[in-house]
Amino acid sequence: MKNTWMFLAIVTFSVLALIAMRVGAQSVQPTSETYSWSGELVGFDASGRTLTVKSRVVGDQALAELPHFKWGDRIVLTWSGFDTYADAILRAVRHDAAKKWSEPFTFPVEFVAYEAPRQYVTFKFQVPAGSVEPLKSVKPGEWVTAISKHRASNETEAITAVNAYTASVARPSTN
After folding, report:
1. Of 62 and 167, the one with more pLDDT
2. What is the value of pTM for the model shown?
3. Which domain holds residue 141?
4. Count of the separate structural domains present in the chain
5. N or C: which end of the chain has fewer CB within 10 A?
């Protein structure tokens, strides 16, 4: 009788472990086409439509890879997020122009710097023409919120809008 219970316990544990591994391996697919993310403004070149921001880094892979990049390197960032909101950088890999990047929360940027002690990465990207005027009033040290496509067909479609950060844009009010 004891052997039967032991056998059932092992089978039950094995089945539960397999189910947990299968569920954990499935990626959560976003239901929205876009997501928002925020960063601290470092600089803005209105004539070149180039925005430089810094955002925090949380992923072990990104923390290990970012120290290897040099200013001006093209890299691809993947954000940690869920559906319509991303919070921090999860992955960073060297940009390969021949490779299509189709993961959600992913787009290419120009690497500027990595602050290891604070775990922040600074990067540049081009903003859409419609975002230039709203960004002119934002000062370095203030925050911006960007809207990005989950699976943009090309780099110019990756970021659809950038505006000054407001709490109502980043998350709904709880009042």
Report:
1. 62
2. 0.76
3. 34-170
4. 1
5. C
